[in-house]
Batch of 3 targets.
Target 1
Amino acid sequence: MRKNYDERQKSFIRSCTMALLLMMVTVAIPVTAAETSLKKVSLIPLWSPQAQFAGYYMAAEKGIYARHGIDVTIMNGGPGHSASEYLLGGKADFAVLWLATALQHQSAGRRLVNVAQIIQRSSMMLVARKTSGISTPESMQGRKVGVWPGDLALPVQAFFTKYHLNVRIIPQSYTVNLFLCGGIDVASAMWYNEYHTIIDSGVNSDELELFFFKDHGITFPEDGLYTLEKNYRNDPAGAAAFTDASLEGWQYAFDHPDEAVMVVLRHMKTEHIPANRAHQKWMLDRMHDLILPPVGNKKMGQLNPSDFKSVGAELHRQGLIKTIPGFDDFTGRSDASK
């Protein structure tokens, strides 16, 4: 009798074990299949990790990209890692570029598509100390002005042209040290970056005279998301998934700023980049102001046709593009099957 009981007990245990193993296999299969079905794509920002790109890091961190069916590798931009070159050379599927940069490539026959305009209004400015006596654009005449090279100089040149300024252009590096030590009278700055570095160094904000280009009718929206037109035409749904997930990542970053800053700092530490929590928090707050559209405007990520025309007209005036491309083609709003 005892023997029969033991045999039944062993048989029951074996049955339960087999059932449990079968359940584990059944559960595991769809997860593995889902993971392997994610489409792998890559993104290269304009610079190394910082809060300027927090939305993309959060979209990856919180599984937002995966939920949209894509597995995104975020590369490092910056010196030696040109976002334009990586995109045009096929080393990256998507890139963060300035609108002015993309329009020049488009004019040269390197066809791109703006899948999202992230920054909605220009954050670039010129900064002067009030003690320098510079209080108006005209008072910059003949003064030493720090100017970044390449496309970053375009809005500055437009400002000089508008006010008929003949200044002493001094090449500016990616620090504001020359301005802080008095080597130049005026510095180029981004609201979300160099401006905060200046005031964080001990200069009070009321000691500074600020010349936001947007306040002077020079609207050069900066960061946008771009892909090659041929890639967009081949997979418009994939581009849409990447765009939607990226915008969702930005919204998550704005809704959870402390978490977003922590993630950015972790990425900076991994890349051995000096990190300042207060500066990254400032940067994220300013990105919030620059990315979210004004009340009553369209949803986040849309390129304003008037900004497109304004930048195109200025580039054409400066002889940097021959023609302004069609807005629908540039933004992928024309028939994707072409």
Target 2
Amino acid sequence: MPATPSRPRAPYRSLTGLLTLLAAAVLVSVLGWATPALAHHVLPPGIPSASAAQAQLNGLTVRAKNNGSGYDRSLFPHWVVISSPCDAREHVLRRDGHTVQVDSSCRPTSGRWSSEYDGVWTDNASSFDIDHMVPLHEAWRSGANTWSTAQRQNFANDVNSPQLWAVTASSNRSKGDRDPSQWMPPRTAIHCDYVKAWVNVKHRYGLSVTSAEKSSIQSTINTRC
């Protein structure tokens, strides 16, 4: 009986795939650069687990927001120097970017950044905003109206919690000062981390939530986490 012919191999395809992987490795290891397909997304620090976020959500005070009387953005001094010469904005861009290089004033001169809200990548840091996860006006209406200026400054420049996110200007401005019951990022893959971060910031600073806000966050934890 004649031998069954073996399945023909595709050496060209295998070689092409290998060369593609080798080229990618060169970009990362030699040039120190990663393409959006290869680079990982970087999240701010301090995002809790789902169970920890649930416990924190359960502990938040539920009440209506105040009417915002007296609010002014200048009451939250922000982009103060964190580690000379880097201010809070520059710190976040260095913290959450890829292969970031800065000049003597800590302004980014090169690097790659991903916007978690909409999945957009850029190599132009000036095109990104630094979003306050819990917006300043939202914080004011949730309890920050009673804080000292020093407390509000700490809140507005907190680089050690999930309060500051590097995102596209368009997504930041689309969000405005709305809470999760009113706005969520267009990129659904970030919804779980988004609400966990929101809860954590409110927990850290003793800010309240409305019943609609809490219900929306709970639904997201249940369905996305």
Target 3
Amino acid sequence: MLKQRVITASILVLALLAAIMWLPAAGFDALVFLVFAAGAWEWTTLSGVSNRFARVAYVAFVVATGLLLSLFAHQLIKVVLISAVVWWLQAFLLICQYPRPNPLMDKPASLLMVGFPALVPCLLALTSLEQLPGDRRFYIVWFIALVASADIGAYFAGKAFGKTRLAAAVSPNKTWEGFCGGLLATSAVAVAGMQLPQAAHLSGVNIFALIVAAIALAALSVVGDLFESLLKRQRNLKDSGNLLPGHGGVMDRLDSITAALPFYVLLLNYAVAP
């Protein structure tokens, strides 16, 4: 299993870097929509929807909504991203309340609705990066490094020091010690990224604000991970799908991204100098 996991991860990383570096903006956006269409399909599984027509209709609706917003609503980008961040704060409360009953989590229809603030703002966030001053490729790679460092830092700190469970009812393997390790790793990557020439448009951001933003981003990535774990636990699922050998489904890789990316792009919209 570990060997398969490493092989799949290596292929994904190489494919992603190739897409970021060499695909034109339109091609990269098309790839993003394809990935999120797969994520929306798996979200119907997490929501408990089995009717194939309903699942296809949901995927089409999510993709169409994201496409319309990306084409015609760039002036609303901050409103959409702020709404997404507010939703993920609500998701944090749902995680804290679990396993107490909650009407929002009981019915497939309500969980499908939840998928919109989880998925659509990410589509808009990624496609909007082309509108910002600076190098879109740098913004994407930096974000991936930040989220990956939160995950890697949490893993190794949890292995070495983990004793106190973070959210035992949702994900028993996560610990507060691992969480803190993830925050430290993300802060380090944030500071390192600011030293690169491609970050020149962010020169007005002071180091304290940068670290606070990195900590908040890492915390949101954990919320996204935990919320998907909550949905899988409710459906008694190990993974959201089986598209990625050794890793599960697309949503198993997007869970942290869906929560952290809207916040990241929102900050860029305020911080990047024109």
